[in-house]
Design brief:
six-stranded parallel β-sheet; single chain; 17% strand; alpha/beta; 396 residues; globular
C-alpha cells in the first residue's frame, strides 16, 4: 500500500515529541519493514524544509515557520500547508492523521489524494473535561478553535481508528461520527527496543540512589493526576519518610515552571524527597522506570496510556486508575494494581501495598511484561494494515 501519515511530531526529526509522535514513528517504521510505501509529512527541524529518507520512510519536511504562531493560528496554517503538500505528492491508499490539532482539517474538505482515516488519540474536548478547565476563558477559546477544527476533520473522514473503545464512545457523544466506519486498534510499542534501552541506557542525572523510588512518567499536568500522586505520597511519607518520588516529564510551554512549583509546595516538609527530573529521552527514561520500586500513573482519564504499556514491558510494579483506556489492556491484580481516579487515599494504600510486599511485585511484573508483548509493533501494525486494505478495497 501507499500510505501517508500526517503529524507535527516525529522522532528523531522534530524538536518536540509526545505520545502521538512516538506512536507514529513506531508504526511508520514497522509499515516500511512490512513492505509498504510509507510517507510522513511533518515539521522540519529548521526553516529549510525538504525531503529525506529514514528507515525506509519518505519524510516530507515542511518549514517550521507555519507552526511558529499562537496555537489557533498554527493549527490552521499547518493544516493548509499539509493540504498543499498532499496535492503535490499524488495519490495514496490511505492518509492517516490524529484528530489532535486537526492536521488534516483542510484536507478533509476534499480528500483528493486518498481516503482519510482520522486516528482518535486524545481530542481537545476530552482533555478539557479531564483537566477541569471547561469554564476557563482559555479553555472556551481553545474549544471554539482547536476543538471545532478537530470535530470538522473527524466528521468529514472516510473512516475512524480509535486507540481505545473508551475514546470512541466518548467522542461519539460530542461529535457526529456514529455513522462513519470505525475500528478500535490499540497503540503499540517496540518491546525489544524498550527493553534494550532500559538495559543499556543510563539513569537520568539526579535520580535518587538511597531509599525506595516511586516513579511517574508523563507530562506534569492536572489530567495526569500529579496532584493526587503528591497528595498520596504525603500519606506514604508519614510512615515511610525515606521513600523518594521521581517525576519524569516536562511541563507545557505555558506553565513556565508553575506546575513544578505547585507540586513542591504541596509536598511541603517532604519536598526534599520530590525529584522533578523533567522530560527524558528514552535512553534515560526507560532505565529510570526499570529501576523504580513502584510506577504510579494516576491519570484522571486516559484515551490509552502508552507510558503504562512501557512500564509493563519493563516488568515494573505498576498502579493505574480505573474508568478509562487503561482497562482495555491492563487487568487489575494480574498486571498490577488499579485504584479509582482522584482518590489519593486509595493510591497511597496501593503504593504501600507494593512497597511492603516484594512477593506481590515479583508476581505482577512478569505478568505485565507478558501482556505488553501482545501490543508489540509487528502484530498491531498488521491490524492497521488489514483495516486499511479493507477500507481501500471497499470491503465491509
Amino acid at each position: 500500500m501507499r500510505l501517508c501519515i500526517l503529524t507535527r511530531e516525529f522522532p528523531p526529526v522534530t524538536r518536540y515529541t509526545g505520545g502521538i509522535g512516538t506512536q507514529y514513528a513506531i508504526l511508520a517504521a514497522e509499515l516500511a519493514r512490512q513492505g509498504h510505501d510509507v510517507h510522513v509529512v511533518t515539521v522540519a527541524p529548521d526553516a529549510s524544509g525538504g525531503d529525506r529518507s529514514i528507515e525506509g520512510i519518505e519524510l516530507h519536511l515542511l518549514s517550521a515557520g507555519v507552526v511558529a504562531h499562537l496555537r489557533p493560528v498554527a493549527d490552521i496554517g499547518w493544516s493548509l500547508a499539509v493540504d498543499r503538500a498532499l496535492r503535490k505528492l499524488g495519490s495514496f491508499d490511505v492518509v492517516y492523521a490524529a484528530e489532535w490539532g486537526a492536521d488534516a482539517w483542510r484536507y478533509a474538505h476534499h480528500r483528493g489524494s486518498g481516503a482519510l482515516v482520522t486516528n482518535l488519540t486524545s481530542s481537545y474536548v476530552l482533555m478539557l473535561e479531564a483537566s477541569g478547565r471547561t469554564r476557563s476563558l482559555r479553555g472556551r477559546l481553545g474549544l471554539a478553535v482547536q476543538g471545532s477544527l478537530e470535530r470538522a476533520q473527524a466528521e468529514r473522514s472516510d473512516a475512524i481508528v480509535a486507540c481505545s473503545q473508551a475514546i470512541l464512545e466518548r467522542l461519539r457523544v460530542h461529535w457526529d461520527i456514529g455513522g462513519i466506519r470505525s475500528a478500535v486498534l490499540p497503540n503499540t510499542l517496540d518491546v525489544a527496543r524498550t527493553r534494550a534501552l532500559a538495559a543499556t541506557g543510563d539513569l537520568p542525572r539526579g535520580f535518587p540512589t538511597g531509599g525506595p523510588v516511586v516513579a511517574f512518567s508523563g507530562r506534569l499536568e492536572v489530567r495526569k493526576g500529579v496532584h493526587e500522586l503528591v497528595a498520596a505520597m504525603l500519606e506514604v511519607w508519614e510512615s515511610r519518610p525515606e521513600v523518594n518520588l521521581v517525576l519524569l516529564g516536562g511541563e507545557g510551554r505555558a506553565r513556565r515552571g508553575g506546575m513544578s512549583r505547585r507540586l513542591r509546595e504541596l509536598a511541603g516538609k517532604h519536598a526534599d524527597r520530590l525529584y522533578l527530573l523533567g522530560h527524558q529521552p528514552p535512553e534515560r527514561l526507560f532505565p529510570a522506570i526499570a529501576a523504580a520500586d513502584v510506577v504510579a500513573l494516576p491519570s484522571r482519564w486516559e484515551p490509552f496510556g502508552i507510558a503504562a504499556l512501557e512500564a509493563m514491558a519493563l516488568g515494573s510494579p505498576l498502579i493505574l486508575t480505573s474508568g478509562s483506556g487503561f482497562e482495555e489492556f491492563f487487568e487489575r491484580e494480574r498486571d498490577g494494581l488499579m485504584v479509582p481516579p482522584r482518590e489519593p487515599g486509595s493510591l497511597a494504600h496501593a503504593i504501600g501495598r507494593l512497597l511492603d510486599d516484594p512477593s506481590l511485585c515479583r508476581r505482577l511484573g512478569p505478568a505485565a511484561a507478558a501482556t505488553a508483548e501482545l501490543y508489540d509493533a509487528p502484530a498491531v501494525t498488521r491490524q492497521h494494515v488489514d483495516f486499511f486494505e479493507r477500507l481501500a478495497s471497499g470491503a465491509t
